[in-house]
Amino acid sequence: MMVQKEYFDTYRGTDIFKYTLQGDITVSVLTLGARVYSIIVPDKNGRPVDVALNYTNAEDIVQKSSYMGATVGRFGNRIGNSCFTLNGKTYHLPHAEGKAHLHGGFCGFDKKVFDAEIDGDGVRMHYVSADGEEGYPGTLDFSVKFTVVGSTLEIEYSAESDADTVFNPTNHSYFNLNGQDDGSILDNVMQINADYYLPTDRMQIPTGEIKSVEHTPLDFRTPKAIGRDIDADDADLKIGSGYDHNYCLNDRHAATAYSEKTGIVMECFTDRPGVQFYSGNFIAAQTGKSLYGRRAGFCLETQLYPDCVNKPDFASPVLRQGEKFYSKTAYRFSLKKPLA
User: Out of 65, 170, 233, 274, which could bridge 301 as a Cys pair, Cβ 3.0 to 4.6 Å?
Assistant: First the structure.
């Protein structure tokens, strides 16, 4: 395995570097937001295809990219009422007017420049989040390691805090298995290994109900094109203008996606109990590595359940002082085998 470092851009006076990991696939990651920049996979004809959306300069990445490829923290997804109570103290978190606290706040991990070093066959990116940053308690020492093993991208999260805090990191890559320049993921085929999902209120905060996917357009237990039911007359779909829901996973094999055009298959594995399937409903019409627009990419954000900090029945995101946090998610790529 080879790791190559090169200059990418400068953001507000700080140099941004790109690390390229070479295996059976080629993955590039940026120190800006500890971000997956590209994932190049050979298609069924041996042609290299970049399946990860992103932007070509640092300013656009921060201002326009809707978290594309970013490591998200301290808390991925939404926190209801933009506050939580820990050890009897209530913490109020920043949020846009009329919206819930999302993805760690206005200046979350996605906008931070990480230190980086080559670590074995991968690259480890490191950031210290100060006590009180974006409203969260405790100084959090955080790192994320990216490794390519054969045709698999492994993402490993590690953290420790000097005071009790809450922590729920994820990766926010947008994928299109037709290629990032295709423009639509509606014909990408998706299978999600989950019998239940979380309905939400109008603010997209889970209501607390854990609902069966049976007889709903959110049922992906059998593979189907993302676009088949995306505009169905369904109250949960209308809230997010398409898929933007946490699925309660049956086991570590979270999901499998496939492109008939390229033959590329992507499987997602995780130790987290949930995955947020987002169908890119609010991607703005802008030029990144190519021209993007609504539903040009999809996300599989592995996570604890949204708003779990305020839902005692959900797995807790509390990270106690001195406790060592570790989590791993992997995206494995392959080609669909032709029928005999």
Answer: 170
Pure H helices in 30-169: 58-64
Mean pLDDT in residue range 148-160: 98
Q: Which residues contact 172 (CB under 8 A, 6 or more apart)?
A: 67, 68, 69, 70, 71, 72, 76, 103, 110, 299, 301
d(CA 44, CA 263) in angstroms, rounded, equals 5
Residue 265 φ/ψ, nearest 5 degrees = -110, 140
pLDDT tens across 306-334, in order? 999 999 999 999 999 999 999 999 999 99
Q: For residue 337, what are the CA distances in angstroms to 283, 299, 340?
A: 32, 24, 9
As a residue count, the chain comes to 340
Task: For the full predicted model, state whether its pTM sits above 0.85.
Answer: yes
Residue 24: how many other CB atoms lie within 10 Å = 13
Range with the poorest average pLDDT among 182-191, 272-281, 300-309, 329-338? 329-338
Active site residue 59: no
Average pLDDT over residues 123-137: 98
CATH 2.70.98.10 fits 2-186+269-335, yes or no: yes
Instruction: Please indicate whether residue 172 is annotated as part of the active site.
Output: yes
Element (H, E) at 246: strand 244-249
One of 95, 101, 172, 245 is an active-site residue; which one? 172
